[in-house]
Specification:
Layout (H helix, E strand, L loop, with lengths): L6 H6 L12 H36 L14 H16 L4 H16 L3 H25 L4 H39 L4 H31 L4 H9 L1 H16 L4 H14 L13 H13 L31 H17 L4 E8 L3 E8 L5 H6 L1 H8 L5 E3 L8 E6 L8 H6 L1 H4 L6 E7 L4 E5 L6 E4 L6 H15 L5 E6 L13 H4 L1 E2 L11 H24 L5 H9 L14 E6 L2 H8 L1 H13 L5 E7 L9 H5 L3 E4 L5 H8 L12 E5 L4 E6 L4 H12 L8 E2 L23 H11 L4 H8 L3 H13 L19 H12 L1
Parallel strand pairs: 7-11, 7-12, 8-10, 9-15, 10-11
Antiparallel strand pairs: 1-2, 2-4, 3-4, 5-6, 5-14, 12-13, 13-14
Bound molecules: adenosine-5'-triphosphate (ATP).
Adenosine-5'-triphosphate (ATP) binds next to helix 17.
Keywords: ATP-binding, Cell cycle, Cell division, Cell membrane, Chromosome partition, DNA-binding, Membrane, Nucleotide-binding, Transmembrane, Transmembrane helix
Organism: Wocania arenilitoris
GO molecular function: ATP binding; DNA binding
Length: 792
Amino acid sequence: MAKKKSKTTKASKPKIKKPNFKLSSQQKLVLGSLLLILGILMCIAFISFFFTGEADQSSLSNFTSRETETKNWLSKSGAWLSDLFIQRGFGVASFIFSGLLFISGVYVLMDIAKAKLRQHWFWSILIIIWLSVLFGFFGSKNDILGGTIGFEINDFLQDYIGKIGTSLLLLFGLITYLAIRFKVTFQSITKLFKSAKKDINDEFSQANEEFSVPLDNNLSEEAEAIKTAFDIPLKDKTQTISEKKSEPKAETPLEVKVAEEEEDIEIKIEKNAEEQSETDNLANKLVEDFGQFDPTLELSNYQFPPLELLKKYDTEGITINQAELEENKNKIVETLSNYKIGIASIKATIGPTVTLYEIVPEAGIRISKIKNLEDDIALSLSALGIRIIAPIPGKGTIGIEVPNKNSTIVSMRSVIASKKFQTSEMQLPIALGKTISNETFVVDLAKMPHLLMAGATGQGKSVGLNAVLTSLLYKKHPAEVKFILVDPKKVELTLFNKIERHYLAKLPDSEEAIITDNTKVINTLNSLCIEMDNRYELLKNALCRNIAEYNVKFKARKLNPNDGHQFLPYIVLVVDEFADLIMTAGKEVETPIARLAQLARAIGIHLIIATQRPSVNVITGIIKANFPARIAFRVTSKIDSRTILDGSGADQLIGRGDMLYTSGNDITRIQCAFVDTPEVEKITEYIGSQKAYPDAYQLPEYFGEESGTSLDIDISDRDKLFKDAAIVIVTAQQGSASLLQRKLKLGYNRAGRIIDQLEAAGIVGPFEGSKARQVLIPDLAALDQHIENESL
Ligand SMILES: Nc1ncnc2c1ncn2[C@@H]1O[C@H](COP(=O)(O)OP(=O)(O)OP(=O)(O)O)[C@@H](O)[C@H]1O
């Protein structure tokens, strides 16, 4: 049975407690009423200031003395407060402060969302400043209106932009406020004007209509007199009205009118706030109270390794050897002309190890002709590692890559320090090295999603693997990524032992985190498959399509840890010497690897497999099909190159980190970044010396066929919590160790042992892969009976 990792409980219980600012209901009552009263008192003091302010002016200087008399209705404090806010502050606009205090009191008392209150404060303070400047502008004689602040701001503004500028600035402030706060737009204003105009017109015509009825029918003498006086206009209007009234009956005008009205009608789109589900509300509240979930919290003081740990090389930086360039160019032109191939133009791009000569052949030359001359050109240039790219994809040229006489080392430091890597937003960024045009080459392992690496011995595979791991160590927090390292050679990856409790994942109860034994590899791969199934289950329950979405949702506290949800780190499985593994374990390794390669991309498990022998019995069709991203260091034969790259080229490389990278389509030549063993040692030591998790990341337990559990556990050896555990399991009708871990607060191993004892006692069924075990006892009464029978 897939037992849950002990991390489940760790993740849900962050050790550092956040200060809790939540108020009890009583505290809310006290604070709310205090704010209400303060608001009212402030308002009283301010009103009183208008009557008593002048009289109190003199007493303010002696404010602290008890003898001093003030007229303010709130005595000394009132006089002082209103002088501070109105006279020396914002003038009349200060009344808004009292309003704000009052509203805050109401909010606290009624426990209304704090976010709204914050908004009120923000906008009100802006209004206060705007009003004080406005009053300062118009009432510069009376400093109570705008207060000292309003006066001073006005003074300042008028010195620089004059009266007109200040008034326009005020107008701009008003427009900005209305636009942002009330979503006022130019269209809505014009519409308002239009409808107002229409209303006035309607009212006016209605009034006329009322008049026109008696005028047209029984004309009294008075009316007759009025009619005579206003004959023309009244008649006109009556006519228009009666025309208008008859319009709906007449067909043509009706059509016209409808058309006119249609033009006027604007569609008002009302944006409905999206309905929030109950969980959303709860999540929002949790996020508001505690902030987003931070997976790095447990190691919040973790420091990423500094750049200084990586070595700087003197031979870095490309030096242009003009004579060499000229010589190579001449040789290329000469060789091609020997075969009657004319060149229209030639251009050189100097990379760290090779220089690319881009040739535009003369019209009418067949590309295949140049391609066939690869060996001849290599011979005439007397250089190893010439590669001809005909044509260069995306360009109308032919490329000839010629190794430089003095190659430069691409240091890990330079690629890690590059802007491209530092600012990359990728999920698992890897700085592989530099391209031929000397650009740092950064790829996302999460997108690859698995990587196959091949190369003959001594060509730079181990350095390449170290470069991949170093990139991830420089970019990802221990909470975000975990490595499973398989190293049959037992020497290449041992340095990473030091970061076991930070970055490595291992099987429970295994001593070494770095796997060197082939049988353990099989267990680990199968365990990884269980982890994959578990993760898919979590994703399914969370309605997420991939790990990134899932983690975002978990961070937003929309997933409940009590339902088994937890922050999921990426898992990167690195296998050095895959050929050795396939030779010794064959199908047993191939099947889980193929399964993982096919399915694991969405749930954040990525595989990096390196092999010396890229032959077809090692890199089988099924593996190849699922590893679109491949790196080829120098290989010894064209056939090997074909196996790994589906094309030649890798046999033409010059070694020492010279490699070809493909992610399915085009092939890029890259000089792999060089990271030496002492550098890796320094980095792992730096990380290893910091506070770590109590243990390496625990993978689910996997029991191989031969490693069945012994079921004859002695009753007297049972755990003290055996009975409690049985009750938990029978009540929940779910035979899972993680349930025991949660309910009884047990460690992973102990919960696992108890489950074994429950199986031996016939309470739960046998291990069923990723599913929970079956519970064989239906209820608590049957459990009591069962245990009693057992002890007889
Ligand atoms: N990117 C590089 N830049 C410069 N030199 C390199 C680079 N990569 C490897 N080398 C040189 O090649 C040597 C062998 O590299 P590496 O140990 O990575 O080979 P390998 O392919 O892992 O060999 P094996 O399969 O035998 O372990 C290194 O010690 C180093 O001197």
